[in-house]
Amino acid sequence: MRNWILGGALSALLATPVLAQSWQEFTYPDDNFVITFPGTPTITSGTYNAGTVSAPEKIYALKVPGRVFEMDVVDFSGNKVSKADAIKQAVVDWTKDGTVAEDTFARIDNDFGRNLNVLHKDGSRSVGSIYFLNRKLYLIQGVSLKNDPDPQSGQPTRFRESLSFVQGSPAPGGRGGRGAGGRGGPGGAGGPGGGGRRGAAPGDAPAGGAPPP
Known about the structure:
- By secondary structure, the protein is mainly beta.
- The protein has three helices and ten strands.
- The strands form two sheets. The chain has a seven-stranded antiparallel beta sheet, with helices on both faces. Strands 1-2-10 form a three-stranded antiparallel beta sheet, with no helix packed on it.
């Protein structure tokens, strides 16, 4: 994952924070995801570099006082990197400058990835997830900066948990996408809806965030 402090889009945002607004849901069908931001994000293009891979990315980002919310969508259609390798390298890049407080496998309906919570050397904390489907790598992170007036705020986690896919991977004999269990069903995340999110030790899922057998 890009170092967000050095990323061009977020460097610009750091100079021009916006006032917090009410949370709004945004749908981006071209990139196949739905998400909520506490305001309207900026959308820019860039280049994702991780290991030996360089690929075009689209960056959806919003800076509010003390926090950054970012969603990166990387187009892997021009290379042959596997899902497992793409997620593994993203985890390495994300965690290389900090202490990992959480590393569990993540799930949205039939799509599996990784959840991360990292305490960085600069005093910031990032909470996010990594997914890979339809040859796109999805990197979502809510960042609590060193100057966050409420470093225990649940907003970064709320941002991470708001992600869903317009059309997810199909279940055996079924369909993917935003169905009855898309965000955990009537009981909330991981609730009776049968879909939604789960968290577990990374050893419970094969490398790269694939579902356990």
